[in-house]
Amino acid sequence: MAKNINKISLPNKIKPSAVTYFNEIKKGNTTILAKAITLIESLNAAHQEIAQDLIELCLPLSGNSIRIGITGVPGVGKSTFIEALGSHLTDDNGNKVAVLAIDPSSKKSSGSILGDKTRMNKLSVNKNAFVRPSPSSGTLGGVAKATRETIILCEAAGFDVILIETVGVGQSEIEVKSMVDFFLLLMLAGAGDELQGIKRGITEIADALIINKADGENLTSAKIAAQEYKNALHLFPANTNNWIPTTATCSAINNTGIAEVWQIIESFKNLTKLNGTFDSERKKQAKYWLEHAINYNLKELFYNNTEIKAKIETIENEVQEGKLSPFKAAKQLLTIFKN
Length: 339
Ligand code: GDP
Fold this sequence. Notes:
The protein is α/β, with parallel strands linked by helices. It has 3 domains: 5-59, Up-down Bundle (Single alpha-helices involved in coiled-coils or other helix-helix interfaces), CATH 1.20.5; 62-273, P-loop containing nucleotide triphosphate hydrolases (Rossmann fold); 285-338, Helix Hairpins (Orthogonal Bundle). It contains 15 helices and 7 strands. Strands 3-2-4-1-5-6-7 form a 7-stranded parallel beta sheet, with helices on both faces. Strand 6 (208-212), helix 11 and strand 7 form a beta-alpha-beta unit. It binds guanosine-5'-diphosphate. The site of guanosine-5'-diphosphate (GDP) has 15 residues, from helix 5. Guanosine-5'-diphosphate (GDP) binds at residues 72, 74-80, 119, 212-213, 215, 251-253.
C-alpha cells in the first residue's frame, strides 16, 4: 500500500538534485547555472527529468528581465556590439547581462556564432555577465527549446537583461522573435539589402534597425543609410503595440551610439509596459511555446514508439512507390500509434 502511494506521488516530487541546483542558481552561482544549462541541452532522460524539475522551481523567479534578440549577417559586428552593449549595461547601468545564442548550424567551427568565446573577451570575464555559446548540435526546434528554458534559469539567477544572438539567415529569427521582447537588426551601410535580409522580411519583425560601423570613412554613408531606412519604415503598417521601428547608427568598436541604442530599448519598454503589450506579447509567446512543446513531445512519442519504429520504413517505401497515398499512410500510422 505504502509502495503504491509512493508511486503515485513520485511524478510530482521534485528531484533533490534539482533543489540543489536551484538553491545555487538563486544565489547567482554561474558555475552551477552553466552546469544546469548542460542538463537542459542534454538528450539523456535522467538529465531531462532534473532539468524539467529545475525549470519548474525557477519559473516563479523568472520574467523580470528584458529579453532582446540581436541578428545580422556574419561580419556585421554582432559580437563586438554585444560586448559593447553588455559592458555599458553592467558597468554604467548596474545590470546583470546574460548572452545566449541560437545557432543550430553551429558545429563549433568558424561559422559558429558564439562557439569561440574569445570573441567576447571582456564579457566572458565580467562577473555581472554570463556568456553561453549555442549548443553545438541539435535541430533548430531543439536548440530553440533549450534557449527558451535557459532564459528562465538565467532570470532566476538574477540576470535582468537577456541578449539572444542569432545569425541573420532565415528561420532562426522567427524562433528568436517568439522568445524576446525586443528584436534588433544590425546592418551595414552600403551592403546589399537582399544580403542583409530585407527581402526576407526581417525588417518587418525588427523593432530597431541599427547601422553599425558608423565610423571613419563609413560615418556619412551610415547616417544616410539610417535616414533611408527611416523613410522606408514609414511604408510599413504600424505595429499592434504602437511602436514605430526605429533606426540609429553606432560604432560598436568605438563605443559610440551604444548608450543611445539602449535608450531606444528603454523607450520601447516604457511604451509597451504602459500600453500593456509587453505583458500581452509574453502571454502570446507562452501560448506559442506551449503549442511548440506539445508538437515537439508528440513527435518524440510518435517516432520513438516501438510499433511505429517497426512499421514506418515499410510504409514510407509504399508511399514512395506510389502504392499508398501519404494521407492514408499517415492515418494508418496514427491508428497504430493510438492503439
Ligand atoms: P559578427 O560576425 O556579426 O559577430 O561580427 P564581429 O563582431 O565578429 O565583427 C566582424 C568584424 O567587424 C571584426 O573585425 C570587428 O572588429 C569589426 N567591427 C565590428 N564592429 C565594428 C565597428 O563598429 N566599426 C568597425 N570599423 N569595425 C567593426
